[in-house]
Design brief:
heterodimer; A: 118 residues; 11 strands; 53% strand; globular; B: 112 residues; mainly beta; six-stranded mixed β-sheet; three-stranded antiparallel β-sheet; 0% helix; 43% strand
């Protein structure tokens, strides 16, 4: 059974960079696409972007200038960096495995709340 | 505002059936059979319930079913159980710009 677990700081100051890591267990990261998705308080889900194990990435156009997703196949991990954060970036951040052929997310992490505040 | 429109809440009594709608456009739901549904109990990992409009992942209860008509997809849960109370989200492939997928705003299912 594939499991994903997000980790990283729960509090980030405005203008700084949010950094999160997703550790994949129960399966190899060297297949499928791996995504980051977020949910601001009281709002719906927003796809941030994804990465293939080869390093190929796709980003949400609304966040593209601030987002970097990377992968470390030796550690079975992938990471998210979001720069110049504001209060609007406060959200629960999820990592997920994405089957891009069927456009479905078949495994998710539990999510981690990141608050942007001074 | 989410790209796909869902009702904020629906409710039903145990044993009854409910349907949650998900309305998009011809750029997503209407033109592609790549609609998925997710169940989310707060504090837990979201769970894939339906993919490609009406397919269930292996082992999932057949009480959950999906369909689509025009720009609106639907999730139906029959024989409601207390543990079905959760938030439900739809998603769809979209051909809009380089955005791969759009989500609905979520529907809270209340089991009375």
């Amino acid at each position: 059974q594939v499991q994903l677990q997000e980790s990283g700081p729960g509090l980030v100051k405005p203008s700084e960079t949010l950094s999160l890591t997703c550790t994949v267990s129960g399966g190899s990261i060297s297949t499928y696409y791996w995504s980051w998705i977020r949910q601001p308080p009281g709002r719906g889900l927003e796809w941030i972007g994804n990465i293939y194990y080869s390093g190929s990435t796709n980003y949400n156009p609304s966040l593209k200038s601030r987002v970097t997703i990377s992968v470390d196949t030796s550690k079975n991990q992938f990471s998210l960096r979001l720069s110049s954060v504001t209060a609007a970036d406060t959200a629960v951040y999820y990592c997920a495995r994405e089957d891009i052929v069927a456009t479905k997310f078949d495994y998710w992490g539990q999510g981690t709340l990141v608050t942007v505040s001074s | 505002q989410s790209a796909l429109t869902q009702p904020a809440s629906v409710s039903g009594s145990p044993g009854q059936s409910i349907t949650i709608s998900c309305t998009g456009t011809s750029s997503d739901v209407g033109d592609y059979n790549y609609v998925s549904w997710y169940q989310h109990h707060p504090g837990k990992a979201p769970k894939l319930m339906i993919y490609e409009v009406s397919n269930r992942p292996s082992g999932l209860s057949n009480r959950f079913s999906g369909s689509k008509s025009g720009n609106t997809a639907s999730l139906t849960i029959s024989g409601l159980q207390a543990e079905d109370e959760a938030d439900y989200y739809c998603s769809s492939y979209t051909r809009s710009s380089s955005l791969n997928v759009v989500f609905g705003g979520g529907t809270k299912l209340i089991v009375l």
